[in-house]
Design brief:
This protein is an alpha/beta fold. It has helices spanning 14-22, 40-53, 101-106, 129-135, 153-161, 170-180, and strands at 3-10, 32-36, 58-61, 65-66, 71-74, 78-84, 87-92, 114-120, 141-146, 166-168. 30% of the residues lie in helices and 28% in strands. Strands 3-5-2-1-8-9-10 form a 7-stranded parallel beta sheet, sandwiched between helices. It has a 3-stranded antiparallel beta sheet with strand order 4-7-6. The mean pLDDT is 93.
């Protein structure tokens, strides 16, 4: 059986959605990588909020890190990328928005022995579309777009450019995360 990996990606409006999704998980059995446009203060605040509202272990990565059953956030101002199926890394960025969702998703081309589920939760702009286009035909990657996102620009950009995705509700995402995590821990 292939290892499962979850990616939650977004920008404006996504922090509340991420907290809503993760607070129902009682014991994390799969790794979750969060790519949420933010600065270093916002990353630390989100990590603290997730620690208070979930029962999951949170790690802000500053260097190459082996993947375990935790929630991973990149250090502020850095991009988070896959080095391999088992390892995450961070890269410096000269871009205004970090982490780059496109860079994270493009790095999924390095994944060969894992089942990856990517949830784009909305936001402003089109970050993520290019990366999704690069991976959309990989049979081990499932792409989900939140249909009721507060800010739909990222979702609309992805819809215009992709052919293989599922447009889903927040409740569907919550249930899917529960099933991927083993099924019995839904609050």
């Amino acid at each position: 059986m292939m290892k499962k990996i979850i990616i939650l990606a977004g920008s404006a409006g996504a922090p509340r959605t991420i907290i809503e999704l993760l607070k129902s998980i009682k014991k994390l059995k799969i790794p979750i990588i969060i790519a949420l446009h933010s600065n270093s203060t916002q990353v630390n605040n989100l990590a603290e909020l997730l620690k208070r509202t979930t029962k999951c272990e949170i790690e802000i990565i500053k260097q190459n890190t082996m993947l375990n059953n935790k929630i991973y956030l990149p250090f502020g101002g850095k991009n988070i990328v896959f080095i391999s199926d088992e390892k995450l890394g961070v890269e410096s960025s000269s871009e205004n928005l970090t982490p780059s969702i496109d860079k994270l998703l493009s790095s999924l081309k390095r994944i060969t022995n894992s089942e990856v589920h990517v949830f784009l939760l909305g936001g402003l702009g089109n970050d993520g579309t290019k990366g999704l286009m690069e991976i959309e035909h990989n049979k081990n990657i499932q792409i989900y777009l939140q249909n009721n996102a507060k800010f739909k620009y990222m979702i609309e950009s992805a819809q215009k450019n992709l052919t293989k995705y599922k447009l889903v509700s927040l409740d569907f995402i919550k249930k899917t995360l529960n099933l991927l995590n083993g099924g019995e821990n839904y609050a």
